[in-house]
Amino acid sequence: MRKRRTVKSRVYVKRRGPSPAAWLAVSVALALIAFVFFAKPAIGRLSMNMDEAPVTAERVTRDVSFDALSLYMVELARVGDAAGARIEAARYVPRGAAGYLYQTEDTFAVIGTGFSTRADAESVALALQSEEGIGARVHALTSEEARLRVTATEAQISALIEGEGTLRALTSTLWAHALSLDRSESEPSSIAAMLMIESEQALSALARLKKAAGDAPNQVAGALIDRLTALADHLSRLTSGAEGTALTLSSRLKYAFLNLRISHIEFLKELG
After folding, report:
1. Model-level pTM?
2. Number of neighbouring beta carbons within 10 Å of residue 37
């Protein structure tokens, strides 16, 4: 309420405080201003349960599927203990092999490389047997398609799908880089430049998934966050150490590929 101005005849009007209705209007206006400037949107957890839905986010229920994944590893040797397996692996690493140790029930398989198809793996194993006398054989690791019914916001579901797709695609890219080096189609410097870009892609997908999942991600989102973190770590180390020879970088790329692909298959199996 405005105070009336004093005129020359010095007639005064008695001042009155704001009415209760005016105070209510002012309070509501201030509350709206505070909300606009200071409130942060709440991001709920990725969940399978409608009861966990935050009141501020609209949630939907969708069927999400992740394609089956296969890995066919070329074993160069099998050793009964870890120490002996590491010694055996060290013999092959300078030649561009991964030297990855894959533990079975009672032995350690020294893995040289891995492929997405059995035919490619068997072809390499046969070549190693006939040309170099290595008792190579193929060890298969596969997962079925994983199907989930997810109740979450659209942003959360998109981040989950994007995260799994990024993990799948960039892991395959590591293998492609190694193959390119083995065929002398690329130089380590050009691979290093591509790895920097791919590192940023992995970090972006990881950041979006973390933001969507919130402070308490559920088991599915948490497991995928762990694997995207491992992907980003591998890419960071590969980028910083890509100044070596083509064989050295190829070995490291194959090792990272195997480590990430095996972990991804385990993730899909857990979902199944």
Report:
1. 0.78
2. 7
